Amino acid sequence: MPYLEVDRLLVEGELVDGVRVWPSQRELARRYDVAPSLVANFAGQHECARRREEFKARGERPAEVPVVEAPAPPEPAQAEPKPRRKPGRPHKADAPLIPFEELDRLLVFGEVKELDDGSSTTVYPTHRALAERYGVAPSVIASYAKSHNCTRRREEAVARISARADEKLIEARASALAVSKDDTVRMIDGYLLNYEKALLEGRVRFDNPTDFNTMVRLKEYVLGGPDSRQELHAALSLESLQQRHARMLRELNEATPELTGVVETERPSEPAQFSAGRSIADPPPLTFEDAAQKPMADGEASVAADVGPRGANGGGP
Fold first, then answer.
1. Which portions of the chain have biased composition (kind: Basic and acidic residues) (predicted)?
2. Model pTM?
3. Nearest to 67 by CA among 15, 4, 10, 6
4. 9: which residues sit within 8 A by CB, 6+ positions away?
5. Of the candidates 72, 143, 236, 265, which lies 20 to 30 Å from 11 by C-alpha distance?
6. CB count, 10 Å around CB of 107?
7. Which of 20-34, 74-88, 278-292 bottoms out in mean pLDDT, i.e. has the lowest?
8. Half-sphere exposure of residue 165, counting CA atoms within 13 Å on the CB side?
9. pLDDT digits (tens, 9 = 90+) for 143-167
10. R_g of the chain computed on alpha carbons
11. Which residues contact 305 (CB under 8 A, 6 or more apart)?
12. Residue 82 carries which DSSP code?
């Protein structure tokens, strides 16, 4: 450790940016990479603390350091004393004047602000922003807004403005459509009149009425006549037909007899004497009329007995 350098720093210090400072023992130990106790023992043995106080009292400077006169301190400017506010609550007459008409307009209708893209929008400032703008407490703005129903009036104003804007847009659009339609019809009528004059003068051909037909159809289209009707020509693709067929099959599979209107009824069973020993493949039994017309074995037709109600019961003719 350079003891002479350490002794000079402990007693006379060093200049840093024109100001004399005395480094601490810990800083010197860190600077010369030694233990702080070594610097403390050296300072105690050589009475560096007492010598520093004597050096400060004498105001001496080392010979190698040039003496630089300190600049004269600037004269303090005589600042005007600030007006002191009177203690207590200010008088009502001293309260700041608020343009209530403008405040009411801002609370109800807002103000127009221009955006970065050049468009404009309506912004409603907050009570705190208005209080800072007019230099009053936010409670003053809140009390005024509550006493004058500014929130309800704002909602009504927004609804009225929207309705009025819609009416203006509808009127402007209708006027534009009407003017353009009337102008178009007037131009077509002028063309037809000039075409008639040219036809009478023989300046146009009369064997090709294409232009005349086109203009007449155009006029009917503009006026909403028969030629203004539109026809829809559409063709079904194979994919759409397949989708419809699949949907129809799915609906048929999911349909129940009740939905389709089918009512299942049971067929009454035949008597036992007719159905006994018969199958579905056998022909139906003969009735009395069939027996009357059935040929006999010798080829003659049998005569059916006239069985009436009496004969069936065993009565006489």
1. 54-63
2. 0.32
3. 15
4. 22, 23, 28
5. 72
6. 20
7. 278-292
8. 6
9. 999 999 999 999 999 999 989 988 8
10. 60
11. 311
12. P
